[in-house]
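I have a small job for you when you get a moment. Would you make up a two-line entry for one protein for me to read? No commentary is needed, just the two lines. Write everything out right here, beneath this request.
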Amino acid sequence: MADESALPSARHEPTDVSPRLIWIGAPALIVVVVALTLLVLALFPGGTIDRTLHLPLPHFPAPELQVNPRGDMESFRAGELRWLNGTGWVDKAHGVAHIPIEEAMRQVEAEGIEGWPAGDQP
């Protein structure tokens, strides 16, 4: 068996990157970035200006969320039923009014509809 003491002692590397590379590489990187920025600005001079927007910007209303959809539907339905079962003016200037739906159906049944074919009546 070989004697282990014959191996040389371990060495360490003092630095991974030499200071010369840092002193040359960092400014070179900055110069390249600045040069590319100037090249892009020269090729696309108005690229950063958005000419489609006109100030002041239009104000759009926020969406109104329903807190209680079921209650909203019930109140809507109640209003519609009030309209169907009530009376009132549709166009007062021309003398047009609405009547309850049940009464309107009875009138149509009694009078019929002009030009509508009559069915067999029991």
Summary: The chain is about 45% helix and 5% strand. Strands lie at 88-91, 96-98. The mean pLDDT is 85.
